[in-house]
Design a protein that fits this description.
five-stranded mixed beta sheet, 10 helices, tRNA N6-adenosine threonylcarbamoyltransferase, acyltransferase, tRNA N(6)-L-threonylcarbamoyladenine synthase activity, iron
Amino acid sequence: MRVLGIESSCDETGVAVYDTALAGPDALRAHAVYSQIALHAEYGGVVPELASRDHVRKLLPLIRQTLAEAGMDVADIDGVAYTAGPGLVGALLVGAGVARSLAWALEVPAVGVHHMEGHLLAPLMEDDPPQAPFVALLVSGGHTQLVAVDRIGQYRLLGETLDDAAGEAFDKTAKLMGLPYPGGPQLAALAERGTPGRFKFTRPMTDRPGLDFSFSGLKTQVLLAWRDSDQSEQTRADIARGFEDAVVDTLAIKCERALDAAGTDVIVVAGGVGANKRLRAKLQQMAARRGGRACFPRPSLCTDNGAMIAFAGALRLEAGQHTPPQVQVTPRWDMATLPAV
């Protein structure tokens, strides 16, 4: 089955073709992502109405481009998958409208995919994919969650952030120190030049039981440290390193607790922050010490993309699941309500 995947939940337009007749990374026939970073940069964050309009402009050309790269025509599509939520309602409706129209015109099935399930399943597209049960860390600009995966489609929330997501904390902390939008990747790059240990920030909520997170207090600590410093470029890098170490250590501590709670030694990491090199190294060390595995998608599939939607949709379409023909999206959607595959 050749599935066209469409992602339009926020500020990236993603399109991909996934072919279930192939195996491993080869099954991803083609994928492309158009980022709206330049469009939103002058506002310091995503403007929902502008995001929706840009999806309208970019989606159809991106579909044509992706099909051409896959060596396919639109008539070769056997199914369509699209992000139905969670996300910005206007942006979601653009992708859903195009997807439903294509499916209706081609007389093929379509399925609405949960955005976070797409992220969660992205590492399964790699060679030697992990097998359930495992624990998933979903860590991005909008989410930080620990999820026990008993089987595909059967998820139990173990813990989540009580305030800022980890990626959101990266972005806001970068903004406090005057880094350009989007600040998270800029801060991580700056931390590479920072002196370890010069600034020591707390590892929030690790001094008590539980698997929930809180990152808002770290922003305040950074603000105070930056305000009271000489504000040199090296100090900025040292503070960035201290902040990144605090977030990475916190995530690793909570992940190990989640593995103990779920009774498994396999951790799967997905979402934009999953591309962070220090986080990857820390979790690989933790998993190796336990005799387990830490699994990640390739960096290009950590941020929002159509490939994860095409893959998650292909699994559900092959299981006989599809969505009614209405153009309907769910901006807030609990992943625990999904049916098992």
